[in-house]
Amino acid sequence: MCRHRRPATSRGAHEASTAVTDSLDAMRRELHDLLADRAFTFGDFVLTSGRRSDFYFNGKQVTLEGRGLHLVSRLILERCRELRIDAIGGLTLGADPIVAGVAALSGEAAPLRAFIVRKRSKEHGTASLIEGPPLRAADRVMVVDDVITTGGSLLQAVDALRDLQVEVVEALAVVDRQEGGREAIEARGLRVHALFVRSEFSAPARA
């Protein structure tokens, strides 16, 4: 009697997918703790926009440290794979370590191209506004930053791409301060994604 065995690939694929999800969830929890410990300072601050805030967020305290950058890059790379992104970039300075980290991790399979948008064009050489490997027509592009406040930095990066005939698929930030920036970007018809939002972090209890 011939017995047909059910292929193990379906179960194996499911188990592998679950393991990846569990790993990403663990990374997200670890990154949350790093951000809470290193990137948030609570008090009375005046922001670049002139607004007052009861906290200050400095994402570079995490994105310029080895483990923090690895976690940020891994989570964003996963998002890039989901959206079939070809190139990732953003406005200097907040985007710089992020796009380099994501591009480096992507090199293990299907490498992404990274680009950095200058705040103003160079006044010498090629006078480039965008640094990095050339972007191609119809490239699927993600723009990133470490934080969304007004949305201005992400929109400046998007505007720099206007004449390149690329498709800006999504604007992504590590943390959304929930101060209207998301809405400003969405008003331009762009999708927005944040790894975390301000409400996921609370001030430490006073002793």
Structural class category: alpha/beta
- Which oligomeric state applies? single chain
Q: What is the CATH topology? A: Rossmann fold
Cα-based radius of gyration, to the nearest Å:
19 Å
The main β sheet shows up as: 6 strands, mixed
Poorly predicted spans? 1-9
Layout of strands and helices, then pairs:
Layout: H1 9-39, E1 40-46, E2 52-57, H2 60-63, H3 66-83, E3 87-91, H4 96-106, E4 113-117, E5 130-131, E6 140-148, H5 152-160, E7 167-176, H6 181-186, E8 192-197
Parallel strand pairs: 3-4, 3-6, 6-7, 7-8
Antiparallel strand pairs: 1-2, 4-5
Helix pairs in contact: 1-3, 3-4
How would you explain this protein's 3D organization?
With 207 residues, this protein is an alpha/beta fold. It has a single domain, classed as Rossmann fold, CATH 3.40.50.2020. The protein is built from six helices and eight strands. The strands form two sheets. A six-stranded mixed sheet has the order 5-4-3-6-7-8, with helices on both faces. A two-stranded antiparallel ribbon has the order 1-2. Strand 7, helix 6 and strand 8 form a beta-alpha-beta unit. Helix 3 packs across helix 4. The N terminus is likely disordered.
Short description:
With 207 residues, the protein is α/β, with parallel strands linked by helices. It has helices at 9-39, 60-63, 66-83, 96-106, 152-160, 181-186; strands at residues 40-46, 52-57, 87-91, 113-117, 130-131, 140-148, 167-176, 192-197.
Notable traits:
globular, 207 residues, Rossmann fold, alpha/beta, two-stranded antiparallel ribbon
